[in-house]
Amino acid sequence: QVQLVESGGGSVQPGKSLRLSCAVSGVSLVPYCMAWFRQAPGKEREGVATIRRTDGRTRYTDSVKARFTISKDNDEKILYLEMNALRPEDTAMYYCAAHNSIGCVLDLADYKLWGQGTQVTVSS
Prior knowledge:
seven-stranded mixed beta sheet, mainly beta, four-stranded antiparallel beta sheet, 11 strands
């Protein structure tokens, strides 16, 4: 059974950094497309970043470009999200997600595999 387990969340001040991790188990190969989504209280879940297994191509939502970096370790089957210059509006539950279908974009409906989430709180 495929499992995605996030870690690395926490509470930080604005301008600080955090690195999230997502460990993939139950598969011999990292899924074709992996992503980070987030959901703030009272808001819809939104896509943050994606990365494709085959060539490492990445996509980001506009609000995190130049601040967040998605990466992966195929051998260790771990997905990362390096978050710099954090803002209060980045506060949310962050979820790791994956799929093996065609395409690798920030479309919630594409993703069939989800982790339980890790909380990120940015506050002074």
